[in-house]
Amino acid sequence: MKRTISISILLTGLALAGCNKDEIISNDPWNPHSGENGGNAEASATSGVTGSTTLEVAQDEEDLIAGTTFVRTISITFSENGDAKVEGDENGIVTVNGNQVTVDNTPTNEKVKYILSGTTSNGFLKIYSNNKQALVLDGVSITNPTGAAINNQGKKRCFVVVNGQNYLADGAAYTATPDGEDEKAAFFSEGQLIFSGEGELEVNATGKAGITSDDYLNFLDGPTLNVSSTAGHTLRGKDAVYVNGGILNLKASAHMKKGITSDSLVVFNGGITNIAVSGGLAYDEDDEEYKSSAGVKADQFFVMNDGTLTITNSGQGGKGISGDGPAYFQGGTVDVTVTGTNYGKNSNDSKSAKGIKFDGDIYISGGSISSKASNHEGIEAKGKIEITGGSVYAQSKDDAINSAGMLAITGGEVCAYSTGNDGIDANGNCFLEGGMVYAIGSGGAEVAVDANTEGGYKLYVNGGTLFAIGGLENGASLSQNCYQASSWSRNTWYSLTVGDQVYAFKTPSSGGTGLVVSGSSQPAVKSGVSVNGGTQIFNGMGVVDGSASGGSDVSLSAYSGGNGGPGGPGNPGGGGFGR
């Protein structure tokens, strides 16, 4: 079944539906920001995010195996010492050739449960069916030297129940695939694969991907999956990948391959997912372009609601999380580390190693996000970025947080730390209107918070709490008072008190000259404090809900804004302190 996903834009939001009854609803109120897709900066001088943008994904209850009644149970036991044994096959739908087992359930069209056990180093299971089915992996080990270990040609739901210890492996070359059939992974299915159970499954793919569905993958509570591929993606759901529970340990080492990928939707609602990617970039002959690796790649939508997602990528030009559309971070914990170098002989084949990068918008409303990239942006959107909640830490040699359009922070806790460029960089208007922001620019012409002044846009500080090392962009509009200190000490704990709220910040070993702070009332700043209690945030560089003692008062003076941009430090239009 080829599933078509259609998008309709409504006045109250956005709806996305597919033929399996997946539903996506977005609450995206009218946003008066200009600079999002062009426009005049002055027109939005008092504009802000008027409401949170969220995306909800409702799944079909038919994905729960408890709702399906199976009329027959067939047991298949593989053997290294003889033919596989079959029990319960009253209709004779199972054919055995050694340990090469083929099921043809199309004549009976029953809902069948298959219990798989035993071991073979030269076998497979292939299924043809027009109805739902279940595969119970009950201590089975299947290695197929010439193709997939399990190949499900059925296009209906296939429930995979994982019990005990199980192992699947393909061969380095797929030499026995019939003409007209797909066989794309060590565990391949034309239809949906829905995983549950309390056991463990290891998949070792050397010829193609680890687990692939030409429909969608859904991981429910319970099982542990250890999936590695040296030739393809580890997990691919063409229409969607849902992680609702369980533990996923994924390794992808092939060039331009991904840990988790979908042509449409990737959603995390729970579970623990660990992804390690080491493959670099390669030339894709089909698409005639260079492509790089990624921990997670979602072509249409990425949604993080809950669970824990940890990604490392050491591949050249690789990404942590990427997508062609928008991303919604609404809960859970995300930890991305990208250490690969950038690649590029010219602008046509350049690939940069970035932590989180989406061609659409990025919306952050909850959860905890840490994204560290050694050589390029920590978080980047080719559209706009809106942060209304959550905790965000971005560290990079390039811009820590970068948007091609408008960038607005109205809530949450945000740290943007660049060792070689701007902390926060918006190529449209930039609005700081709420929350707490710790921004660090690298110095020189690179500031803590930057807007595209050259393009007629502007930085607006309208609210929130700000602790900025390196100053603000030239021509900033400061409707909330800002204050400056002419210098700061490296590797030192500072306290920032605004009203009865105390924040603590650890300064880096390098960064721009000067310190700018702002709050709803005039802040008090101390350096060299001792921090007690509270909750660590920002990769240990910040503490909230704690207390600070000792230290020395920092003298503050009024700050009018302006440390970078067209005027430049010390040039006309470059207000505030110089460098």
Largest pleated sheet? 25 strands, mixed
User: Helix coverage percent of residues?
Assistant: under 10%
Number of strands: 54
Tally of individual helices: 0
Beta strand %? over 45%
Low-pLDDT windows of residues: 1-22, 26-47, 564-579
Shape: elongated
Mean pLDDT: 88
Structural class from helices and strands? mainly beta
Radius of gyration: 27 Å
Whole-Å distance between the termini? Answer: 63 Å
Architecture blueprint of SSEs:
Elements: E1 6-10, E2 13-17, E3 23-27, E4 54-58, E5 72-78, E6 85-87, E7 94-97, E8 100-104, E9 112-120, E10 124-128, E11 133-143, E12 150-152, E13 158-163, E14 165-169, E15 185-189, E16 193-197, E17 200-205, E18 209-213, E19 216-219, E20 224-229, E21 235-237, E22 240-243, E23 247-252, E24 258-262, E25 265-277, E26 282-284, E27 289-291, E28 294-298, E29 301-313, E30 319-323, E31 327-338, E32 354-358, E33 362-373, E34 379-381, E35 385-387, E36 391-396, E37 401-403, E38 407-418, E39 424-426, E40 430-440, E41 449-451, E42 459-469, E43 477-478, E44 482-485, E45 493-498, E46 501-506, E47 515-518, E48 524-527, E49 530-532, E50 535-537, E51 542-544, E52 547-549, E53 552-553, E54 557-559
Parallel strand pairs: 5-9, 8-10, 9-11, 10-12, 11-13, 11-14, 12-15, 13-16, 14-17, 15-18, 16-19, 17-20, 18-21, 19-22, 20-23, 21-24, 22-25, 23-25, 24-28, 25-29, 28-30, 29-31, 30-32, 31-33, 32-34, 33-35, 33-36, 34-37, 35-38, 36-38, 37-39, 38-40, 39-41, 40-42, 42-43
Antiparallel strand pairs: 1-2, 2-3, 3-4, 5-6, 7-8, 26-27, 42-47, 44-47, 44-54, 45-46, 45-48, 46-51, 48-53, 49-52, 50-51
